[in-house]
Design goal:
Layout (H helix, E strand, L loop, with lengths): L1 E4 L9 H5 L2 E6 L2 E6 L5 E7 L5 E7 L4 E7 L11 E7 L3 E12 L2 E8 L2 H9 L2 E6 L4 E5 L3 H13 L5
Parallel strand pairs: 1-8
Antiparallel strand pairs: 2-3, 3-4, 4-5, 5-6, 6-9, 7-8, 7-10, 8-9, 10-11
Helix pairs in contact: 2-3
Length: 162
């Protein structure tokens, strides 16, 4: 088991953030979009049956990437409040800080990281168990995430040199 601490930075998405993102592609259950407010970072998102909206993507203006999850069931989330998050891929684990945020009216959290191995794990695996500081967890199906990550790279390539 690999245990890595991820340096994380606060970045809070807003409803306006969601409305300004152009759709680049649909890859299986994942939708790839670009965000003009962070250096045209591309990301993929998926709404799970549990009602959890997951976003994974790039933050070019900060030389990193992010993971976020939002769900109406995540009660008590305070914007800007830091907590812990654990990503368990089975034989590989990543732990870091998540910052409370709301996206499109849904409470949740946002984690920035600069460890390239973290994003790569999403493409290599079929599932990940995400556990918040409260002890609540959700097992996420990552089917199609490798193709989604490849599409993020294609999306990002259109902005290189701009």
């Amino acid at each position: 088991m690999i245990r890595l601490w991820l340096p994380l930075v606060l970045m809070l998405p807003t409803l306006g953030w969601a409305q300004s993102h152009a759709e680049f592609a649909t890859v299986g259950d994942w939708t790839v979009k670009s965000n003009p407010t962070n250096g045209n970072g591309c990301y993929m998102e998926k709404m799970f049956e549990s009602g959890t909206l997951v976003q994974i993507g790039l933050v070019p203006d900060k030389n990193g990437a992010f993971f976020s999850a939002y769900n109406s069931a995540f009660q008590g989330v305070v914007d800007g409040e830091a907590g812990s998050v654990l990503f368990d891929f089975g034989d590989s684990r990543f732990q870091g800080v998540v910052v409370g945020a709301h996206f499109a009216g849904l409470p949740g959290g946002y984690a920035f990281f600069d460890n390239p191995e973290f994003a790569a794990e999403f493409g290599k695996r079929t599932s990940v168990l995400v556990q918040g500081g409260s002890g609540k967890s959700e097992d996420l199906d990552l089917t199609g995430s490798m193709k989604g990550l490849q599409s993020i790279k294609s999306c990002q390539a259109q902005f290189e040199g701009n």
